[in-house]
Specification:
- It holds the Pfam family Aminotran_1_2.
- Keywords: Aminotransferase, Pyridoxal phosphate, Transferase.
- Residues 25-371 form the Aminotransferase class I/classII large domain.
- Its cofactor is pyridoxal 5'-phosphate.
- By secondary structure, the chain is of the alpha/beta class.
- It folds into 2 domains: 11-36 and 277-373, Aspartate Aminotransferase, domain 1 (Alpha-Beta Complex); 38-271, Aspartate Aminotransferase, domain 2 (3-Layer(aba) Sandwich).
- It has 14 helices and 13 strands.
- Helix 2 (38-48) crosses helix 11 (262-271), helix 4 (91-103) runs parallel beside helix 5 and helix 12 runs parallel beside helix 14 (362-373).
- The longest helix is centred in the C-terminal third of the chain and has 19 residues, at 277-295.
- 4'-deoxy-4'-aminopyridoxal-5'-phosphate is lined by residues 30, 91-93, 117, 161, 165, 194, 196, 224, 226, 232, 237.
- The site of glutamine has 5 residues, from loops.
């Protein structure tokens, strides 16, 4: 018996494979195609020759944990206890899966806001939980009436994602206040806050749960160095959670991976001394603006993009095909790969929208936009 009978191969694998098979420009799966920082390479080359090849402690390399605590204090003025509230994970994916499987029991309900990242639902299903998919509003803001209506005595967890993949939207302060009010009424509910794009915000600053004292005590925050340092393949992320919750997560983590790749942890730990996250944010503002400028006279309609490195477009002026078919046609006929937005919804209702990743060299973006503008 399959544990995940209705879960297909991840759309990110499917679209990247199709892009490769057809030699298309790959703006589908979210990863940068520009070189990593030379300083990161130098640190890697030097450390490779040092004693960094055995298991780190189960919760993570102590120096990396310390630096994450310093970063969290600097960015959000939150003091995290490195010994009890932090855990290095094999990317945010493993962090999210581990947290859900440690905290969600058979029959527990988990509220997921659609459109939603593809790993949430399967993680809940493996835990024996019940995903409750609730749509965001048309403008992708949270709808607290439908969220409240979806809460039952069995609701154990709500998952939120800011800045949001795929839409790039970022919650406002009043939306967090409204969430606090809802959660106040239901003290049994925990919050999982996926903040892997915390450093990539454009129109207004990302509001981290790290700055919401009322939420901190019930929240697991997930982040990823893959996103913030352009090393998605290194698979290093982390969780922040209050000690009592973290103790449960650690119990599962130790038997899922025990500890995370040691070399990557050592390199990232040193690199955090020199990296400037503002520079990274500025680079992505420039890339977003460039991509939007390049497409402004095309027949694709650009939706607002407040953060992340994804641009959502609708193609209603171009085709009446559903978004999966149109995304495939875009690869095979026009040479550009994207992600159809319907895959982020429970019932795959067609939205006639696509997501493009602009974490690419300017040359790649220019070449892709040239093809897209001809359609
Ligand atoms: N959450 C979101 C919203 C993501 O977009 C991603 C991947 N890009 C992840 C989690 C997983 O992050 P990681 O690659 O560190 O596993
Ligand atoms: N998070 C990335 C995206 O949204 C992909 C991660 C993956 O391939 N699993 O494109």
């Amino acid at each position: 018996m399959s544990k995940l009978p209705n879960i297909p191969t991840s759309i990110f694998s499917v679209m990247s494979q199709l892009a490769n098979a057809h030699g298309a420009i790959n703006l589908s799966q979210g990863f940068p195609n520009f070189p990593v920082d030379e300083r990161l390479l130098q640190i890697s080359e030097r450390l490779l020759r040092e004693n960094v090849h055995q298991y780190t402690p189960m919760v993570g390399l102590p120096s990396l944990l310390d630096k994450i605590a310093v970063l969290t204090a600097k960015n959000y003025k939150r003091k995290v206890n490195t010994a009890s509230e932090l855990l290095i994970t094999a990317g945010a994916t493993q962090g999210i899966f581990t947290a859900i499987n440690a905290l969600v029991n058979h029959g527990d309900e988990v509220i997921i806001l659609d459109p939603s990242y593809d790993s949430y639902e399967p993680s809940v299903l493996v835990a024996g939980g019940k995903p409750v998919r609730i749509s965001l509003n048309e403008d992708y803001s949270p709808n607290f009436n439908t969220i409240e209506a979806g809460i039952t005595a069995k609701t154990k967890l709500i998952i939120v994602n800011n800045p949001h993949n795929p839409t790039g939207r970022i919650w406002t302060e009043s939306e967090f206040e409204a969430l606090e009010t809802v959660l106040d009424k239901h003290p049994q509910i925990l919050l999982l806050s996926d903040e892997v794009y915390e450093y990539i915000s454009f129109t207004h600053p990302h509001i981290s749960v790290n700055i919401r004292p009322k939420l901190i005590e019930k929240t697991i925050i997930a982040s990823s160095f893959g996103k913030s340092l352009h090393v998605t393949g290194w698979k290093v992320g982390y969780l922040i959670a209050p000690e009592k919750i973290m103790n449960e997560i650690k119990k599962v983590h130790q038997f899922l991976v025990f500890s995370v790749n040691s070399l990557s942890q050592h390199v990232i730990s040193e690199y955090l001394d020199v990296v400037d996250f503002k520079e990274i944010a500025n680079m992505y503002v420039r890339k977003r603006n460039l991509f939007q400028e390049l497409l402004k006279d095309s027949r694709f309609e650009l939706l607002p993009c407040e953060g992340t490195y994804f641009q959502v477009v609708n193609y209603k002026q171009i085709s009446t095909k559903n978004d999966m078919d149109f995304a495939k046609e875009l690869i095979t006929t026009h040479g550009v790969a994207s992600i159809p937005i319907s895959v982020f919804y429970k019932d795959a209702t067609d939205k006639q929208m696509l997501r493009f990743c602009f974490a690419k060299t300017d040359e790649t973006l220019i070449a892709a936009a040239e093809k897209l503008s001809r359609i």
